[in-house]
Amino acid sequence: MIPYGLLVLVSGIIGYARRGSTASLARGASSGVVLLLTGFLGLKAFEKRRNSYVALVLETLPFVAAKLHQQKSHELNQPMLVQNLLTV
């Protein structure tokens, strides 16, 4: 989750830098930070040879949010590229 969290965070920053999109920055930063946090929690739990159910629940939040956004975009007939990128 840590590399994916960094990728999402950086992509939000790039979206803001290229287009000035505060929505891209907000979504990328919030999802990236949550994924980084869950990666860190999962890593610490793995070191202790335990499961981190908090990390498991938090890992699903950005994906659920992306899926809900995808459904909303589909209803608004936005381009498929946007929908496909959000579910990757």
From TrEMBL:
Organism domain of life: Eukaryota
Signal peptide interval: none
Swiss-Prot/TrEMBL keywords: Membrane, Transmembrane, Transmembrane helix
Record Pfam families: Tmemb_14 (PF03647)
Transmembrane helix recorded as keyword: yes
Gene Ontology CC entries for this record: chloroplast inner membrane
Subcellular location: Membrane
Molecular function via GO: fatty acid transmembrane transporter activity
Family matches, as Gene3D superfamilies: Transmembrane protein 14-like
InterPro entries named among the record's database cross-references: TMEM14, TMEM14_sf
Primary location class: membrane
The family this protein is said to belong to: Belongs to the TMEM14 family.
Protein name, per record: Protein FATTY ACID EXPORT 5
